[in-house]
Amino acid sequence: MEPRDRSSYAVYQAGRGIEEVARELGRDPEEFVVLSSNENPHGPSPAAVETIEAHAGGVNRYPKSSHVDLVEAIAERWRLAPEQVWLAPGGDGALDYLHRAMLDPGDGILVPRPGFAYYAMSARYHHGDVSTYDLSKADDFAQTADGVLASYDGERIVFVISPHSPVGSEMPMAEVERLAAETDDDTLVVVDEAYGEFSDRESKRRLLDERADVAVLRTFSKAYGLAGLRLGYLLTPAAWADTYARVNTPFSVNELACRAGVAALADDEFVEEVVETSRWAREYLHEHLDAPTWESGGNFVLVDVSDAPTDGEETPGSAVAGATQRRGVIVRDCSSFGLPECIRVTTGTREETRRAVDVLNGVLTEVPEA
């Protein structure tokens, strides 16, 4: 007995963590700063931690009322009906629900390249086809309706990432509106705003009041610091009111995640601190790194390290990421995104960001083995 052949499927490659790297190098995890996975360097919302501790003894019960409470809190925050909030185990879980709801076998999705690998993975799990549109380094990864429409061929779903990881660019509201207007009536435009809290631009959620062909993806993983609880959601058109119950798995979001989400959503002071620090760190990276960077709306900065010295076998991104890792700072080699000459640096605390800049600037002038 063998599973079906999935050798052609892409694999999601996560950023490396402290424990993994420390074990590999035989070092103490306390020596490292991890700036590779766009996690929240401040930890989780303190209000969420208190709530988890208070409700840990109740995990023998299914998350019924807590799920309802969180959906209602999100709906109130976004001024939507609760039926428009699709709660899920992470943003990836929301993608699975979306594809269950939207895709018949052979239907297509259109995704950016570079981009989040799980869009394509999830669509293929649901027997969908995948096409791509390119974001060009030569154009500073600008996101425009024309750039997407040039590759559009009637796909059922078109994905836009704004702010985009790993490049940091955003698609302006007017461009998303034009994209939705110029695609077919039965095409859904999904705007992934996983990093939306870090942007100074308006959420595309407003379009849900005006159109029935736009949805917005959000997560608690980044600004709220709940990545380990896997909690995300989709904001959908009002016409989809009864669809979520038909595609959701039973009790898909766990009790502690639901409780923590309610608490975190109300912890505005924590989120404001996180966003303020991240924006400071972005500017510090732009100003002090001895390498070209791109403007970013997220909690990370893409860095061009193509001029860094290598041993001739590694890509510049791999060489720099490896060298900084050996010096205690873990950043993301962007080769898996199709950008082998780049690294992505998550915005850390002020201390972590200054350390990352010092280490990177040293590495950029030396051979990676040093």
TrEMBL record:
Q: What is its EC number?
A: 2.6.1.9
Q: Which gene encodes it?
A: hisC
**What is a single molecular function from GO for this protein?**
histidinol-phosphate transaminase activity
Q: What is the lineage of its organism?
A: Archaea, Methanobacteriati, Methanobacteriota, Stenosarchaea group, Halobacteria
Q: Which organism is it from?
A: Halomarina oriensis
Q: Which CDD domains match?
A: AAT_like (cd00609)
Pathway assignment: Amino-acid biosynthesis; L-histidine biosynthesis; L-histidine from 5-phospho-alpha-D-ribose 1-diphosphate: step 7/9
Q: Which keywords, in A-to-Z order, does the entry hold?
A: Amino-acid biosynthesis, Aminotransferase, Histidine biosynthesis, Pyridoxal phosphate, Transferase
What this protein is called in its record is Histidinol-phosphate aminotransferase
Q: Does the keyword Cell membrane apply?
A: no
In its keyword annotation, does this UniProt entry include Transcription regulation?
Answer: no
**BP terms from Gene Ontology:** L-histidine biosynthetic process
One Pfam family, short name please? Aminotran_1_2
- PTM N6-(pyridoxal phosphate)lysine: list the residues: 222
- Catalysed reactions, semicolon-separated: L-histidinol phosphate + 2-oxoglutarate = 3-(imidazol-4-yl)-2-oxopropyl phosphate + L-glutamate
Q: Which domain of life is it from?
A: Archaea
